[in-house]
Amino acid sequence: DELLASLSPEELAELEKELADIDPDANVPIGHRQRDQTDKTPTGTFSREALMKYWENETRRLLENEIGGGNLDA
């Protein structure tokens, strides 16, 4: 732990790159075998309420189209 804590961000990135090339150990859970891909910066704000409203409206629209036989181009 102390050794890893003493590494610079560049050294850590290089170590991760080298570890990615090593064959994965089948005894390690899949989630721990993959490299971290969460360095992407957020693309915008997140509103749970807006997302829930969108899903509800979209589901309602799809159900109405399915039941009514309407087209899905709305």
UniProtKB/TrEMBL annotation:
Renumbered residue ranges of the record's region Disordered: 21-45
Alphabetized GO MF terms: tropomyosin binding
GO cellular component: striated muscle thin filament
GO biological process, any: actin filament organization
Coiled coil start-end: none
InterPro entries in the cross-refs: TMOD
Main localisation: cytoplasm
Pfam families: Tropomodulin
PANTHER family, per the entry: LEIOMODIN-2 (PTHR10901:SF12), TROPOMODULIN (PTHR10901)
Protein name as it appears in the record: Leiomodin 2 (Cardiac) b
